[in-house]
Amino acid sequence: MTLLLGPVLRHVDDTSALIWVQTDRACRVEVLGCAADTIEVMGLHYAVVVVTGLEPDSRHPYEVHLDGERAWPRPGSPFPPSVIPTRGPAADVRQRIVFGSCRYVKLADPKQARRYGLDALDAYATRLATLPAQEWPSVLPLLGDQVYADELTPQTRRRIAGRGERHPDWPDDEIVGFEEYSGLYRDTWSDPEVRWMLSTVPTAMIFDDHDVRDDWNTSGAWRAEIARKPWWRDRVRAGLASYWIYQHLGNLTPDELAADGDWQAVQAADGDVWPLLAERADRWDAETGRGADRHKDERFSFCWELGRTRLIVIDSRNGRIVESVPRRMVSDAEFDWITERALAPGGIDHLVLGTSVPWLLPQVISDLQAAVEKAGDRPGRIGRAAEFLRQEADLEHWPAFGHSFARMADLVRAASRSRGTGPDATPPATVSVLSGDVHHSYAAVADVHAGGPGPRDGATGGTRVHQLTCSPVHNVVPGFMRVLFRVAWSRAIARVTTGLTRGTGAGRAGVAWARTSGPLFGNLIATLELDGRRATARFERPRTASTLDTAAEVALTPQAPAAPGPVAGAAVGSP
User: Does the pTM exceed 0.85?
Assistant: First the structure.
């Protein structure tokens, strides 16, 4: 009996936690006296163990047993024991949120490894193993491109070689089947240092395009074109089903998991559940086009309550509505849910919104995306030219969905206003939008009252709004992209391009922003430190396989006195 992958520590609250595993055969998985039977998908075996009855504000070392035999930790492990750090009053005031996106798998070939550089997440995990537990992160949101199904390593190419006789229509240079996706996740999560970190730091995940295919759901025209490929139905089924198994299930709270209709169906099914998941994947994919009929169980956006901090992660890929006007990043019904959660009662000091693609981009690129969306609605040659530019230049972030860009601005404005009286009426000190995707890292401060009356975000006591983008964790950034992004942040050029947004949703949103740090290039990992109502952001770049240097640090709030009491994660300085 072998633990092929995991344990991965996912959602954690005061008294419970979810632990995900993949095993080599059907078995019963036990953690701290709580157990779950595996489910079977295409001959592969998975379990999500709901661990309950934990003490709040505690660190609970744990082992994983398969049919009664210990499978984790491995004998002779050089790493500290895996623990479940429960939340509670002492841990709720201070949070360390470590995030990033776009992590290509580590490469064995020395030449290729040098080209991709040091893996920032791997270096962070290696350093973490040497630090006391009080300095570990509170949560690790991975914001997209956990795997690359369309950029294959030599190892993956060898693994899928020879499948042509069985699947003559499948391309030689892309992943298609579910079993092939399982190999991508195994390669990505088996790195010893990262595997240990995932076993002991609560980890949230959302997908981006490369988890399925580059430019996934860019537009209705993109969907129509890709649907004509004979292998696409197999691919999107495998991509969505593997995301649901490997990433989505652990984003749910125990109550949400128990109430999830798809999870209930899988648990009740006998034998291999691939036919069931394939049918569900068809439904998830079709909803991207229709939007209006999206069922409540098809929402991949999720919310974690972290004491005085609320983390909401938005599905900005599969949630898109691209076959109707206005184009939407998520359906209006899903955005209503996001808004309700963001403005839910209960005082918070910080609202954190995660989205794989940035809300606020370099102004020049933002203006161009808004203009292309407007032109794309026109018939004839202009509309076709706009669609070509949208796909070729990847103009498909939030500004290219003006309706949703404006709704995001409305949400942030609403969150920054006082609501009534009493201790819970004070608006959060910060609203931080965490993103990746764009292969450069930066911080930008926003004024969401730029288009009308209301307090400026820089005003004393006001909510500070920031876009924090960290990308890539481990990937190549071509030289021309570095030049492009430096130019795109030019204020002089932005004064010219702003006129392009007239009459667009982004142009009417009433948001102005300015870069406060960056652009930073190369492999980085970012940390959002929250201490009472103070907040800082730090970007770190690996110097060696176990050390990182601070590339930039940004104060997001005036540096008021720190909150008293024990630290749920003190600042991690570079050696």
Answer: yes
